[in-house]
Design brief:
The complex is a heterodimer of chains A (281) and B (281).
Chain A lengths: L8 E10 L25 E11 L4 E6 L5 H8 L7 E6 L14 H11 E4 L13 H11 L5 H14 L16 H13 L5 E5 L7 H18 L2 E5 L3 H7 L2 E6 L2 E7 H6 L4 H10 L1
Parallel strand pairs in A: 3-7, 3-8, 5-6, 6-7
Antiparallel strand pairs in A: 1-2, 1-4, 8-9
Chain B lengths: L11 H16 L5 E2 L13 H10 L5 E6 L6 H14 L2 E2 L8 E5 L12 E5 L13 H9 L4 H14 L10 E3 L3 E3 L9 H4 L5 E6 L4 E5 L5 E3 L27 E5 L6 E5 L2 H13 L1
Parallel strand pairs in B: 2-3, 2-4, 4-5, 5-8
Antiparallel strand pairs in B: 1-9, 6-7, 6-10, 8-9, 11-12
Classes of the chains: A alpha/beta (281), B alpha/beta (281).
Chain lengths: 281, 281
């Protein structure tokens, strides 16, 4: 396959279950179940056979109701959690031939530090609230092997400027910042190594509308400038409509519909998607 | 009634357990080995880690020296010496060259150590990443995966805030190119003495229940950046007011009334030795 056609990230049959399973649900991966948990043994099937690809420069949106397994899937991709089974291939890692879930924890850390960036819904997850903002950005650069303070400061200031945080506040700790600013520091941190893939998990949830707009604008402009591939998880169809090229719809841990965003929003096929689109209006 | 203690206070089983932990620590330079820290007749934080190491090592032929902040005569040093001398009957000394076991807090003696000597350092916080990551479970993983960006990040923060690395003591070191280690609160001035030292250096943390070691002739490098190299404290144009020594760690004593600053060797036994030498000539 030509390298330019190869997807930046290819995910094959990710499963994530909490619990051992029982006769009622085991083997079927919960397919026979009504919801994503087994009423007999209480095992939760958070992700069930999720497969998709992300291509270079593309934004993939993932929508679904709360509890549908969106964030769990993202956490699995960023190695915050271990998958129960499944494969993922990253084009920039060993030519996209190796299943990254089977790599050692050191290698996973390498992938996280060099080839991915993640913005969490809760800034506490990725920022050290007692360290300075520029230190938070430097952390990612240091973990990628940079040992030059001058370079890291220049890069940090550049990034903070890029996300509209005044450079004179760079020594301040993110705990003194507003929610929107913390979110922007997170974005700057995630971008610091120019990763080929950015994971955004509910980045605008909990922010007021004007701040939401500014964060979304920022993401859009970054994508245009840097041509980074992104996965955006949201339960807000407005965010998906504005940003995503393609969209997956998730329900009870399964992908129930996928396609071009316009297509999904204009002509939803699955009953749940139809309800979701209607509720937007 | 006089209580009869076993030789060196501990029962033989306790000594063996501590020695086993010590052997493991020597086998893996810089790795923190957990051990069953005992209740001691001195308070936690007063050198129980060092004291337990010393007691487990001490034999009838040994000569002991105990230093507290460079001084042989401070309360802590005197009482530790008394305890060991009373329960073993061994000889204590102030001379660095005579001693076979040197227990120390906050300093490595100015006189270079020899191959037949053991330096025992008392450690309050053995985990160099503690300020960066409060969870022991997480820091163990970070050590295992050789992920030390947190240690450099702490130095980066100092440079951003103060323009230089400002660790007054306990500047983190990389041991044998593998483990980052807290060298106990010795001043930066003493860090270079750890590198390729002829003596065995053992570090014990009683409250935190950890033992770690730097075997003789081990490479120990202080963490720094390409554009901010590690530097020791300098006492330019200053010398000891008693013995005239230069290139040693000096204490600054301020005269309350005149505001005058006086400088004096921190290592009192070294100072005394020099003064005796000068008067003999």
């Amino acid at each position: 396959m030509d390298d330019s056609e190869r997807p930046v990230l290819a995910v094959r049959n990710i499963n994530k279950q909490y619990g051992q399973g029982c006769v009622n649900c085991r083997g079927a991966k919960g397919e026979g179940l009504l919801k994503n948990y087994c009423p007999v043994c209480g095992t939760v099937y958070a992700c069930r056979d999720i497969s998709f690809e992300v291509y270079a420069g593309e934004i993939l949106g993932i929508v679904g109701e709360s509890g549908s397994g969106k964030s769990t899937m993202m956490e699995c991709l960023y190695f915050d959690q271990e998958v129960s089974s499944g494969e993922a291939y990253i084009a920039s890692y060993k030519g996209g031939e190796t299943n990254v879930f089977e790599e050692s924890s050191q290698q996973k850390r390498y992938i996280r530090n060099h080839l991915m960036g993640k913005v969490y819904q809760n800034p506490l997850m990725s920022l050290k609230m007692n360290f300075s903002s520029i230190g938070n950005i430097a952390e990612k650069l240091i973990s990628a092997g940079n040992r030059n303070v001058g370079q890291m400061k220049v890069r940090g200031e550049e990034l903070l400027e890029h996300v509209n945080i005044p450079v004179y506040r760079m020594k301040e700790a993110p705990k003194n910042f507003s929610g929107g600013m913390q979110q922007r520091v997170q974005i700057a941190k995630a971008l610091s190594n120019n990763p080929p893939l950015l994971l955004l998990d509910e980045v605008t949830t909990g922010l007021d509308l004007s701040v939401q707009a500014s964060v979304l604008d920022l993401i859009k402009s970054i994508q245009r400038q840097l041509k980074i591939s992104m996965i955006i998880v949201s339960h807000d169809l407005g965010v998906i409509r504005m940003l995503a090229d393609r969209t997956l719809v998730m329900l009870d841990g399964q992908v129930i519909e996928q396609g071009l965003t316009d297509q999904i929003l204009e002509d939803p096929q699955h009953g749940y998607t139809q309800k979701l689109v209607q509720s937007l209006l | 009634m006089k209580i009869e203690y076993n030789f060196a206070f501990f029962d033989e089983g306790s000594k063996r357990e501590i020695r086993r932990a010590t052997l493991k620590a020597i086998a893996i330079p810089g790795y923190q080995v957990p051990f069953a820290s005992r209740e001691m007749p001195i308070a936690r934080g007063w050198g129980t880690g060092g004291l337990q190491l010393t007691l487990s090592l001490v034999g009838k032929e040994d000569i002991l020296k105990v230093i507290d902040q460079g001084s042989d005569e401070s309360v802590n040093a005197v009482n530790i010496k008394k305890l060991i001398a009373l329960t073993t009957g061994i000889v204590v000394t102030d001379e660095t060259t005579e001693a076979t076991i040197i227990q120390s807090r906050h300093r490595i003696p100015e006189t270079p150590l020899q191959e037949d000597q053991i330096l025992v350092l008392q450690v309050p916080i053995p985990e160099p990443l503690r300020y960066y990551e409060p969870s022991e479970y997480e820091t163990k993983k970070l050590h295992a995966e050789h992920e030390y960006s947190g240690a450099w990040l702490m130095l980066f923060e100092q440079i951003v805030n103060y323009g230089a690395m400002s660790t007054g003591a306990d500047h983190p070191v990389m041991v044998h190119s593998r483990y980052v280690m807290a060298p106990s609160p010795i001043p930066r001035f003493d860090n270079p003495k750890l590198n390729q030292n002829k003596a065995l250096i053992l570090l014990g943390a009683g409250r935190e229940k950890k033992v770690y070691a730097v075997p003789p002739y081990t490479k120990v490098a202080s963490l720094d950046f390409a554009d901010y190299p590690f530097r020791v404290e300098t006492f330019q144009d200053k010398c000891c007011r008693l013995c005239g020594a230069k290139d040693v760690f000096l204490d600054e004593l301020l005269n309350d009334i005149t505001g005058e600053a006086l400088y004096q060797c921190n290592d009192t036994s070294y100072c005394l030795q020099r003064m005796n030498g000068i008067s003999k000539e």
